[in-house]
# Entry
Amino acid sequence: MNLPRFVRALLAPALLSAAAHAADFAPAIIYDMGGKFDKSFNQSASDGTTKFKQDTGIEVREFEVTNAAQREQAMTRFAQRGSQIIVAIGFSQASAVEAAAKKFPHVKFAIIDGTVNLPNVQSINFRENESSFLCGMAAALASKTGKVGFVGGMDIPLIRKFALGYADGAKFVNPSVEVYQNMTGTTAAAWNDPTKGSELAKSQIGRGADVIFHASGNTGGGVMQAAKDAGKLSIGCDSNQNYIHPGSVLTSAVKRVDVAVYQTIMDAKNGTWKGGPIVLGLADQGVDYALDEFNRKLITPAMEAKLNQAKADIISGKLKVAESKAP
Amino acid sequence: MSAAGKLPRWAELALLPLINLVVALLLSGVVVRLLGESPWTAFKLLASGAIGSQEGIGYTLYYATNFMFTGLAVAVAYHAGLFNIGGEGQAYIGGLGSGLVALWLGDRAPFLVVLPLAILAGAAFGAAWALIPAWLQARCGSHIVITTIMFNFIAASLMTYLLVNVLIKPGQQSPESREFGANAFMPAAHEVLARVGVTFTASPLNLAFVLAVAAAALVWVLVWRTRWGYALRVAGQNQAAAVYAGISPPRIIVQAMLLSGALAGCLGLNELLGSQHRILIDFPGGAGFVGIAVALMGRNHPVGIFASAVLFGALAQGGSQLSFDLPKINRDMVVVIQGLVILFCGALENVFRAPLAGLFSRFGPADAKDAG
# Structure
């Protein structure tokens, strides 16, 4: 058999269909290892693309990577097939975005939770420390024992930013509060280990904590369950998780990845897209603490007043929230 | 062989794996059908994605390079009667060794100095990571399966610590080191081929592929053509006989595991020096575990390992192509196909042996009949 011809025949349909759609707007999104349905960070991004599809009827090309080499490969592939904008979800894609953006200077790239200094890249970051600060305040205000807990996913700078904001917020309302901190693990599996999350939460509860904040993706399910079982409070993360255990979830540190993804694709479609850094904090409603019917009874008017005062002060710049520990 | 019948050598080595592979692919086709896609389209995409373009071939062989290193590592330990599940951790720590050399010398020494040092450091770090489980097995009888798998976790914790606290490039979120100096980059296949006038599409395929093939040849010579290799195989098959023959099994255990760890440790040459050009978190990406399947399917022989490594590389590359083009087939489906291949070629390899042996003894040449 003539292999090249055989192979070309196999390839032909794929090439044809790519050419046919090249002129249309074809945004692409690349999720990271956590996968599209992680109930947290990646899923929030997926919600943004779903909304875009609903609003415009335009399909968004999607890909979930399974190893490091696939990131740049996927970006190259999407760029070659005529995607005008490629959104990369997650800090670990930064170096791949950098390489691909240099190769395709006319394609727009956006990265969530990372920074790439190129004119055709939009770097979207969130001030998680601000929402965590408010959650820390809420935790210390709601705590009867004066002890609150934090369960992080994987031990990386991003999660330390959550932990720091939370501890600072708790100490802001009660300088003598004790904050227990645990990280679930050191591999990517730490994002998806509810059993261990539950054990860490139980151990913190055993030491007296009565409010526990998780920033751990899927692991947080176990944290929140353990808090509910023990009659204690938990705080959700990334998506609004108040509904998961109504009456037991004090609030959630919401991070609007969905809005950011929707906005960057929409801007690209409308021709208003610009490269450069974008930082979304409380002021931009990129992060917030969640208040809805599920936790209305847990947040007393006095607490709400204090939280909103702090929120206003952070927005006006009167109250500064550190991003990382001074070296 | 403990199976019911004996097969001619060619059937044992080629026909049986092929039958297993075809059955695995047929079953995958059923799953694809259930998901509402045409199995035929899916297989065409899988094949064209893996070998249908220069880029596809480049990626296939690039993945195969990783699997060859880890597959050889598993095979060497297997011949000594050891099941080394720690390839992942050994590759991770070995990559640290190669990466440190690349960080240190990448911008101050020529490539021809960096390369041998990076190989040595990768092999030495990987071997060192295998040494403790090996020593525990040889001296205390602590089972190597347990210790090596636990060392994978220790390796992950150690690397996370180093990447988050020590090696991280300041001012970034992602736990990655800075980029290596350009002299530490493995020459990419497309650059080398361009120099001799052949155009090849850019892909991460690099010189490490040649090193992996060389490692396979080295393993063949060591295991089948040296006294040490003979001692290794004797100790692996029957420890009592080995002692009777004057071979010290504990010594062989340690030596085999050192070689095994060194082979796995070379993965960083492909992944870090060849492609990523920095040390990053979780770079082995499961290749250490795929290596087990590769070694089993390749019958622990370097030639078989080469073939099955290329097959698994093709599945990885073709599978990603598949999920690009057929949105219903997501990455988990690709894992299902790989899982079926592993199931049929590894765990169920004897299912078709007896019927096949029956066929051969009925219709085949006389030499297949004598051993029933």
Notes: The interface with chain A takes residues 44-45, 47-48, 51-53, 59, 62-63, 153, 156-157, 159-161, 164, 168, 172-176, 204, 271, 275-276, 278, 280-283, 285-286, 316, 320, 323-325, 327, 330-331, 334 of chain B (CB under 8 Å). Chain B has one domain: 13-352.
